[in-house]
Write a structure and sequence with these properties.
3-stranded antiparallel β-sheet; alpha+beta; 197 residues; two-stranded antiparallel sheet; globular
Length: 197
């Protein structure tokens, strides 16, 4: 199965408003450039939700020689796990400790990270959702393309459902598991009842 490329995505976006496909992204055509910008915007927005493929828990971010923690450009979100006393935010390309009002840290921090992956590395189910959503946004911003948006809304809902299906299959989520998908629940076993006697 061929994976969707950025060029494929842009051509789908263009076809949504009745434009002809292109063979390259660097054509100088303003419609192609706008379609690519919208694709990048929606790609980042969808990935920022945090999915199984781009989220890591307790990921260590090291302290540099200045005692600060620089944030790589491909991080969309960095936060302490729930229940932590410290609150950090991203400012000026580095972490800022809002609790202690400082950019300085003594040790590396283990944070929950959402990464921005390249479009080509996004799983196909999510890629299709991103493409369809971008096509609808692009059509909505184009003059006189309201009919295309109305037509695409059902397709977008189906694509989101497929993306969520992928997420649940890959995540193997359960109400008995913690956020790292480790099962902490121990079911009753009849043999253990005999141990009480």
């Amino acid at each position: 199965m061929n994976k969707s490329t950025k060029l494929d995505a842009v051509n789908i976006i263009l076809s949504n408003i009745g434009q002809s496909p292109v063979t390259a992204l660097d054509t100088g055509n303003p419609l192609v450039e706008t379609a690519e910008l919208v694709l990048d915007e929606i790609d980042k927005t969808v990935q920022a939700e945090g999915w199984i493929f781009n989220t890591e828990y307790s990921y260590p971010l090291p302290v540099n020689t200045d005692g600060e923690i620089a944030i790589p450009d491909n991080i969309l979100s960095a936060d302490f796990p729930p229940g932590s006393d410290c609150v950090v935010v991203q400012r000026k390309g580095k972490l800022y400790d809002r609790t202690n009002h400082t950019y300085k840290f003594d040790d590396a921090l283990e944070l929950d990270i959402i990464w921005k992956e390249d479009f080509e590395d996004v799983p196909e189910a999510l890629k299709q959702y991103i493409i369809i959503r971008a096509a609808n946004v692009f059509a909505g911003r184009s003059v006189g393309a309201g009919e295309a948006v109305r037509f695409g809304q059902q397709e977008e809902a189906q694509a989101r459902a497929s993306a969520l299906e992928y997420e649940t299959q890959q995540g193997d989520y359960s109400i008995f598991s913690d956020r790292n998908n480790i099962t902490t629940y121990r079911s009753t076993r009849p043999v253990h009842a005999l141990l009480r006697f």
